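How a chain folds remains the central question behind the approach discussed here. In the encoding step, the backbone of a single protein was reduced to a row of integers, each denoting a local shape. We regard such an encoding as a compact summary of how the chain folds. The sequence in question and its structure tokens are set out directly beneath this paragraph:

___
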Amino acid sequence: MHNPFFFYLSLVGFPIFGYILKMLLPKAIAFYSHKFITWIAIPILVLTSVDYQELYTNFWLAPLIAIIAVLVSAAISLIAIDLDKIDEKIRLLLRSHKFSNISGVNLGINHHQGTSTSHSHTHSHKKLVHTLWTENMQDSFLASSLIGNTNYIAFAIISLIVISSNTKDSLTYPILFDISSYILGIFIFILFVQTRENQKRTQGQNITQELTKAFNKTKLHLLNNQVFVNIIVCFLIGTVISFGVSFNGNNQGFFQEKLQGLVNITITIKTLIVYLYLIGLGTQFSTNKYKFAFKSIFMFLISKALIVPIMIGALLIMMEINPLLMLPLLIQVAMPPKLLDPQLSKDYKLLPEFINSVSSVGAITVMFVVPIWVSLYYL
């Protein structure tokens, strides 16, 4: 990277500037900046950053890494939930034992004094049996691990790296990664939930029926997600444009000169879009108090932004993948979650408090995690 200081300053400075604007300007700026990111910034970056030639070379790489990353995230998330549930049960048992001892002493005293404390005992007992890992909480945790597709943030960060260096300006592999991980993530999540519900009703279905039902539900959610459909359409149009530019670029004369002028204008517009994109991300930051314990959020982000990227990075090194392809894929894997599928959240009763909490905290950690990966890459 020729100008790492500019990259780090932009990655941190523009979102902070966006957050300051959010504090000074009307609250509607967060709403409109989200619309700008979703319907203007992302389509422009996708349309202007697809290289059709990369579809012929290592086409399999991004989908393969996406599949592995989703499966690893699912496994780590389920293990983390089970371990924390065990720890929670142990703590509840210890507290219950302590409560029983104290209650026994109090009951003896109250019996001696002729008073009753049954109501307070019942109230305290309800506090003790409260559990964090309800089914809705587990589903929210798993959904964020699998289909929290703020990987779109990576589009701006990868483009910022291009601006700060002479690397190739292409989002072909990141886009393929995002599409693949989103489709598989939704499918695994729906399959997990419906399998659990069938077990509760003791109405088992054969594997074929389970997979078919999950596939149909996944297809329905994909078609109803306008953001995802928008990405697919822009990717296809961008591929056609890339082919046309490459074909005309081989011709000499007037058309080549006009084409080069168009490319220069496109680069300028894209640079401006990236800066506005980062500012818009800053307006999405929230400092509201989080309803859920910081432990669960921290545990989630450690898994998503550190453990999974380390495992995927080790795999890419073992596969001897081109270093120019490694960094964009690592950045994609390390992106924080943000569910852009309101219908999915509604259908499966995901907890908006948890979803928003990990999204806000995760967006802030991006400013610290990504520089670490970029620095290690350029060592």
Q: What stands out?
A: Residues 114-130, 252-256 have pLDDT under 50 and may be disordered. DSSP finds 14 helices and no strands in the chain. Residues 65 and 315 are 9 Å apart (CA to CA).
